[in-house]
Amino acid sequence: MISFDSFERIASAPLSTWPGTLVVSTLSVLFAIGVHRVGARILVRIARPYPLMSVVLRFIDKPALALLIILGLGFVLVESPDSLPFAAALRDLLTVMLIVALTWLAVRSVGAVAEALVKAYPLDSQDNLQARRIHTQARVLARSVMIVIVIIGFGGALMTFPAVRQVGASLLASAGVAGLVAGIAARPVLGNLIAGLQIALSQPIRLDDVVVIQGEWGRVEEITGTYVSIRIWDQRRLIVPLQWFIENPFANWTRNSSQIIGTVFFYVDYRMPIAPMREELERILQNAPEWDKRVQVLQVTDATEKSMQLRVLVSSFDSGLNFDLRCRVREGLLNFVQSTYPQFLPRTRADTSPEGEHADFVQPLERGLVDGMTGTAGTIRSQVSSRTANTEADPVASRGERHGPGASAHSAATTAPGTPGGAAVELVERR
User: Fold this and answer.
1) In terms of domains, do 314 and 406 share one?
2) Taking the alpha carbons of 63, 69, 70, 71 in that order, is the dihedral positive or negative?
């Protein structure tokens, strides 16, 4: 009968040489692969009704396989005798590989949880405020935790070497100075890391938020551990460091809600009636799918020396729809004014009379209609008087004729060729 000690001695006999160790290592790797496949199929069937668990299993599939293979090889090398060449060096290498595999598995697990949360709250819903909040927190916090895990794993792998342990002990002895130097050197990196945590917790911005930064309008496309990518409307990308959002003001159009009010301005003549434009605005909005039926306003907001300003306020569920709605309203009202009231479009009024004539347009006529006028001036006076005496609105008939010692001088001035008075009288006579 074979005892347990005898079985252990027989099992460890092939490990005394490298050919036997390689054969056992191959069998161990094949066994680890078989265990991984069988276990993966069982767990996938169990996790099929649970989306979160399914995403986690998909993310950790390869790291789990690598970890099982490293563990199988590690058991083989642990059982191999110290007399086997390079056995000690291979044990140290497998220790480092084990730390790397565990770090990889932890990073993928964190990423799997974040991805599962993102898929559970899609952004394509109509009111995606809660979804954007969860997306931002999940992605930013996941990246921060991943960075911490990688740093710990890297430090653990280095500490397996005796020389690095001595350096670590020396650094710990002077931890104050080393920490100060490291903090100054890594200030930008640490600042962005802390800013990322602040953004994830306080959330001044979220994924898919509409922001205006330094005059650029766009959406938050990605939040990494060091910067934020803003997708501008013309498909450019604005890259902004995380710390900038903590230290500078910016406009967030979707901070509390994606609903927004847009503005359209018009400039029309003073005589333009407002009521028909309000009716046309209502008709346009009733046929506009971008309108959310919350705000519909048309008001006169300003009056300049040339025209009056009309402001239209319309609302939509988000800024993209609101931009299209503003264009629709602007085009519709412009077509309405052009087709129905083209005479009330903005125009510039100007006096085109020659210089010096516009001030005395009526006055020379009044001075020329005096008693005692002779010649051409008298003839003109009689013709003008016969045409305007019975007109109540005529300024000359209402004021009467001017008399006085300077009447003859005024008469001469009006009849002189080339004078402004003569031009004015000729213009009235032709009328």
Assistant:
1) no
2) positive
Tokens of 163: 């020389």
Q: What is the pTM of this model?
A: 0.50
Q: pLDDT, tens digit, for every residue of 104-117?
A: 999 999 988 888 88
Helix%, strand%, coil% for the chain, nearest 5: 60, 10, 25
Q: Which amino acid is at 143?
A: R
User: 402 and 278: one domain?
Assistant: no
The sign of the torsion formed by the CA atoms of 16, 17, 22, 23 equals negative
Torsion of CA 164, 165, 168, 173, to 10 degrees: -140
H or E element: which one contains 67?
Answer: helix 61-79
Judge whether 63 lies within some domain: yes
CB-based contact 47:58 (threshold 8 Å): no
For residue 49, the model assigns a pLDDT of: 82
With respect to residue 350, please indicate whether it lies within any of the assigned structural domains: no
Sign of the dihedral defined by the CA atoms of residues 171, 177, 179, 183, in that order: negative
Total domain count for the chain?
Answer: 4
Question: Considering just the CA atoms, what is the radius of gyration of the chain in Å?
Answer: 45
